[in-house]
Design brief:
The radius of gyration is 26 Å and the shape is flat. It is mainly beta. Strand 19 and strand 20 form a beta hairpin. 13% of the residues lie in helices and 37% in strands. The chain has a six-stranded antiparallel β-barrel with strand order 5-7-10-9-8-12. It has a six-stranded antiparallel β-barrel with strand order 13-15-20-19-16-22. It has a three-stranded antiparallel sheet with strand order 1-2-3.
Length: 350
């Protein structure tokens, strides 16, 4: 790209030469972020994700905000749609990316037409995190204390219930209210023993039919697993919009660890969901990217025989998509080796 070539003229003063030299170094460093294979123009297609597009242009996709130029003519510059054209350009010596959107002409006629709704591209693959978001959540403290009620019996004494069945819970659930049936799973604890939160797995959804004192009859509307006694009736979590989530580095230098894998597997690879011990209280937001590092090997010094720990090594990246107070759910975007619970996470190099 011609814009990546820099020409400098000699100045009349040493200070001017020094300033130009520094500016050239800064410009060159900015362009080094851009891949040599980055296209000058790219048309967004259905199935793209924001991470995929960022990775087409940048070695480090989380540097996307530094490349992106907001277009004031577009209502929400963070939303990108199939058909949009992205152009890589030179903005006063540094790389920038702008968006062009075709103005669609609508021809009016007396006919009734169904116009498909355009969906903005997702930040990360919705088929991976969509089912997870619907089925997992984290709460502070003892989930039984904050639940509306708990299951005490199935219809006619059944021990398990499923979709279409009725069951009984003890507690307070307003009539005709739609609630979730959840089961406590992993209890996350920090390295110092501090409770970080309890994971709840969604078993199904139900609706309150009637109540006598504190015994409420529910009708099970849907069930992903068998509902059992002591499962919890919990208000459904409000869905959160992830459309505007942008890959970016945290503002502060943060470090933590992978503390769990919701699916219970031991080894972790690309596009698996993990839980990290950093949350909104640490400043974590949706879209924040962290580098994954593995502890260095412990060796014996050949002379003193003392135990030495080698430096940690980068092993991948992950992006947070659902932060809570003290923990966050994140998706592993890159993995150069097999990952495990206990691996370190830290802000990526700038």
């Amino acid at each position: 790209m011609a814009a990546r070539q820099y020409r400098w003229r000699a100045g009349v003063g040493g200070w001017l030469i020094g300033a130009l030299t520094l500016l050239a170094a800064l410009d060159a460093a900015a362009w080094e972020r851009v891949r040599e294979s980055a296209p000058e123009r790219y048309t967004v297609v259905t199935g793209d994700t924001l991470w995929d597009i960022a990775a087409r242009f940048l070695h480090a996709p989380w540097q996307w905000p530094e490349l992106w130029q907001a277009n004031p003519a577009i209502d929400n510059p963070h939303l990108i749609y199939p058909g949009d054209v992205l152009t890589l350009d030179d903005c006063q010596g540094v790389p920038c990316l702008s968006l062009a959107r075709e103005q669609r002409v609508v021809k009016l006629s007396p006919e009734m037409r169904t116009v498909p709704r355009r969906e903005a591209i997702a930040p990360i693959d919705p088929s991976v995190i969509g089912p997870f978001l619907r089925g997992h959540r984290i709460v502070d403290g003892d989930p039984a204390e904050d639940a509306l009620a708990y299951v005490v019996a199935g219809h006619q004494g059944r021990l398990i219930s499923g979709a279409g069945d009725s069951l009984y819970v003890r507690g307070q659930v307003p009539r005709d209210t739609r609630i979730g049936i959840y089961r406590p799973a992993e209890r996350y604890v920090g390295g110092d023993g501090t409770p970080l939160g309890t994971e709840l797995i969604k078993i199904g959804e139900a609706r309150a039919l009637r109540a006598e004192d504190d015994i409420v009859q529910l009708q099970v509307l849907s069930a992903d697993q068998e509902i059992r006694n002591n499962d919890l009736a919990v208000p459904l979590e409000t869905s959160r919009q992830l459309d505007t989530m942008v890959p970016q580095s945290p503002l502060n230098e943060l470090s933590g660890a992978i503390v769990g894998v919701p699916d219970g597997v031991r080894f972790i690879g690309r596009l698996q969901v993990v839980t990290i011990d950093l949350g909104t209280l640490d400043g974590v937001q949706p879209g924040h990217v962290f580098q994954i590092a593995q502890q260095g090997e412990v060796i014996s010094d050949p002379r003193s025989q003392e135990a030495l720990t080698l430096p940690s090594e980068a092993a991948g990246t992950l992006m947070v998509f659902r932060p809570y107070d003290r923990v966050s759910y994140a998706l592993v975007m890159e993995a150069s080796t097999v990952l495990e619970v206990g691996d370190l996470v830290r802000s990526p190099p700038r």
